[in-house]
Design the sequence.
């Protein structure tokens, strides 16, 4: 309840922090993209991870104004990096209720017009279930976003196969393979499953990103499977903007 009340108050945004996790382009070995991941620096509870407050914010609807704030902050920061010579695209997680609220297109347009980031440097990550929830209205908004030049990614792919057919009818740019695909599979089977999903992505002209790459073995596996990109603790954890800026600059 306390969490719900606080998240409804924009004054609380001062306590929100955006961390950024690099996403590697495997053929070049370059960190060409980031995923923005929100944290709440709570005065009493310390650093709270999104799993402990995003579901509440989704239930109350507070996630919509919060994401509006996040869009502005992330686009501002990414534009600043571009000016400093760090050219990266950035992914933002979008909740299902934001897609169905009907304001997402306007929110994204406003945030992009406030800064100088090319629209194709912004990737909106949508989960399978949020896309499947309202395919008509959602699809309409997705097409408007794509017309604006924004890119869309399917997040947590592999956790809801029942919605696959409807999903594939949507205008996506990237398929992000859920980290569960890398976990608990014996390496040889794992590569086969991954290869099949990457082949599916290729044939649909989607880029593929493997999530949750923690070890060199897993990196080898996702490379063998033909993934275009990889994200995970092997490369870096999500970090505050200042650290990320240093991390990127040390690699140019
Ligand atoms: O590192 P991590 O614990 O940050 O993220 C856990 C989960 O929270 C992930 O599923 C991620 O998609 C989600 N998440 C992180 N940041 C945001 C955000 O800004 N908005 C939404 N809707 N979800 C987020
Ligand atoms: O659902 P979404 O893809 O938005 O979630 C991103 C989440 O995955 C964040 O919580 C992030 O911290 C976490 N994450 C990123 N890389 C790794 C990794 O290599 N291993 C594990 N276990 N989690 C990771
Ligand atoms: Mn994500
Ligand atoms: Na994911």
Sequence:
């Amino acid at each position: 309840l306390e969490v719900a009340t606080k998240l409804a108050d924009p004054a609380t945004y001062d306590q929100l922090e955006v961390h950024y996790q690099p996403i590697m382009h495997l053929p070049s070995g370059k960190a060409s993209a980031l995923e923005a991941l929100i944290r709440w620096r709570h005065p009493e509870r310390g650093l709270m991870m999104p799993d402990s407050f995003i579901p509440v914010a989704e239930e109350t609807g507070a996630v919509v104004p919060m994401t509006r704030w996040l869009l502005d902050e992330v686009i501002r920061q990414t534009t600043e990096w571009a000016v400093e010579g760090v050219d990266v695209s950035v992914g933002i997680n979008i909740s299902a209720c934001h897609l169905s609220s009907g304001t997402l297109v306007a929110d994204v347009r406003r945030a992009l017009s406030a800064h100088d980031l090319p629209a194709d440097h912004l990737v909106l990550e949508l989960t399978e279930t949020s896309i499947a929830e309202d395919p008509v209205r959602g699809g309409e908004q997705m097409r408007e976003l794509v017309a604006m030049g924004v890119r869309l990614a399917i997040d947590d792919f592999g956790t809801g196969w029942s919605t696959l057919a409807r999903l594939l009818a949507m205008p996506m740019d990237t398929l992000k393979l859920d980290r569960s695909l890398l976990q608990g599979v014996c390496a040889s089977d794992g590569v086969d499953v991954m290869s099949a999903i990457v082949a599916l992505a290729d044939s649909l002209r989607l880029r593929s990103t493997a999530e949750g790459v923690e070890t060199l073995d897993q990196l080898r596996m996702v490379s063998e499977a033909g993934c275009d990109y990889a994200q995970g603790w092997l490369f870096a954890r999500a970090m505050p903007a200042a650290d990320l800026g240093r991390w990127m600059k040390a690699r140019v």
Q: What stands out?
A: Residues 37-38, 49-51, 54, 63, 70, 93, 95, 238 surround guanosine-5'-monophosphate (ligand 1) (CB under 6 Å). The beta strands are 16-25, 30-42, 46-48, 89-93, 122-127, 151-157, 174-177, 207-210, 229-231, 239-240. The chain has one domain: 2-242. The mean pLDDT is 91.
